Amino acid sequence: MSPAKSSAAARDADPVGGAQSIFRVLRILKYVGAAPARGVGLTDVARDLGLTPPTAHRMLSALLQEGFLALNPKLKTYSLGRESYILGLAAESRHGIKAIAESAVLRLAESTGDTSFLSVRSGHEAVCVDRKTGDFPIKILTLEVGHRRPLGVGAGSLALLAFLPNDDIERVLARYDASAAPDLPSTAMLREDIAAARKQGYALNPGRIIPDMLGVGVPVYDREQHVVAALSVAAIRSRLSGARLQEVVAALQRAATELGAELAPRPA
């Protein structure tokens, strides 16, 4: 083995430590948190996060030992554990946007008959924090609570990105990797979607994820006009076109204005 390979192997075998390892562990937590209910396996974590199996196993084991992950003994898959749940409850008590927005998300689902979502930004990603379904027989359930998408991918995610200051948008686009998944739009497509959203005043996902599904989203602003969340509605294509699209947009904008007022801190 060459000295370089020997050195790399030695580093990989070192106990978890240092800033790089911390970032890796946090990425694992985010990855597992966005996984389906059945959880994810060691091979998935190693492959998708660019880790060697020994490194992935060591970090998963540490998170398992501390209670941040749980292991399904039959499937050999990992999901979020008790300590992650406790941290989530603590965060919810301090940043309880889901509780404040829940009635607005429910009203949107009831009034439109379709699926409504609440999304917030997490770094260069959008996270779905609430979802309600309407009474229309065909449900759009492509996004579950806790799932993450790159900013700009999906109606709510696009609303979070498109209405940021220009410098923030450019920083996000500089980190965007369309090759990370086969169904991601190109950077050029995202720029077109951003421009259209700014012109229209709302974000439209024109079937980028599923061709027969459309989504429309609007930003939620705080008192200082910072984008703090996004509300969106998804439906089959025939239900989000023409006059009905404008009706849904109007309902979203009313809900976003009301929610923004609720989220705004009261003057001292």
TrEMBL record:
Keywords on this record? DNA-binding, Transcription, Transcription regulation
One Pfam family recorded for the sequence: HTH_IclR
GO MF: DNA binding; DNA-binding transcription factor activity
Record flagged with keyword Transcription: yes
Pinpoint the IclR-ED domain residues: 83-265
> What Gene Ontology biological process does one annotation of this record name?
negative regulation of DNA-templated transcription
* The name this protein goes by in its record: Transcriptional repressor IclR
Specify the species.
Achromobacter insuavis
Its gene name is iclR_2
